[in-house]
Amino acid sequence: AEAQLRQAQKMEAVGQLTGGIAHDFNNMLAVVLGGIELAKRNLPKDAEEAQRHIDNAAEGASRAAALTRQLLGFARSEALAPEAIEPGELIAGMSILLDRTLGDGIAVETQCEGNGWHVWADRVQLENALLNLAVNARDAMDGRGTLTISCSHTPLDEHHPGECGPGDYVCLSVSDTGSGMSKEVMERVFEPFFTTKPVGKGTGLGLSQIFGFVRQSGGEVRIDSAVGAGTTVTMLLPCHAAKAEDIAAPERIGPQEAP
Ligand code: ADP
C-alpha cells in the first residue's frame, strides 16, 4: 500500500508536468502536419524523392502526435464518467478492433459472455485499457499465440451472479502466451516511461495509464507472469448491480482518490 501511494504521487507529479508540455506539443504538431499535407499536395507528381522525404516527415510527425495524445491521456485530469457496463458486451463490441490489432497469428478467446455482472467504470477508459493490454500481449507473443480475456467476480462464492455489493469487484483478465516478464521488469511496469521496447514502439505509458485509471475507479491491477510462459493482467473494478435507475443517472467521480 505504501509503494502504491508513492506510485500514485509520482504519477501525479509526472502527469502535471507532461500534461502542459503535451498540450502545447499537440498544437504545434497540428501545424506541422497541416504544413506537410499542404506541401505534399503542391508537389509536382514526378518529384518522387521529395515525396519520399515528405512522407517520412509526415510519419515522424504522426508518431509524435500519437505519443502526445498518449501523454495527454496519461495526464488527463478531468473526472471519469463511470457507468454500468457489462464486460461481455463491451468486449464483443471491440472484437473487430481486437482482431485487427492482434493480427492473424493470434487467436482470441473470450470468457465473459452473459454472466450478468456489471462494472462501474468509464467506458472509453476501459476500452482503452483493454486495447493497451491487447497491444502489450501482441508484442509479447511476437505475432503468434492465444489471447484470452476472461471475467470473474470476487468474492467468488458469496453472491449469485448479478447481485453484488459494496467492496465486490468484477475481475477482467487479459492473458497471453507470450514471453512473460522477469522479476526486474515486473517491479517497474507501472512506472511512467518504463519500457523495454525499441524507441518509437513503446512509450512506457500503457500500464501506468491503466494503473491510474483503475485506481481512480476504485479498483486494483494485478499482474501474474512467468518468463517463457506468459502474462495475465487483471483489472479489478468495482462491481455494479444493474439497476435501471442507477444506469440512468450516473454520478461522476473525481480524480485520484487514495483508497
Ligand atoms: P510499453 O508497452 O509502451 O512499453 P507499458 O507500460 O504498457 O509500456 O509496458 C511496460 C513494459 O512492461 C513493456 O515494455 C514490457 O517490457 C512489459 N510488458 C507489459 N505487458 C507485457 C506482457 N503482456 N508480456 C510481457 N511483458 C509485458
From TrEMBL:
Q: Report the portion of the entire protein shown.
A: 266 to 524 of 654
> Which part of the chain is the Histidine kinase domain?
20-241
Q: What is this protein called?
A: histidine kinase
Q: Which organism is it from?
A: Sphingomonas plantiphila
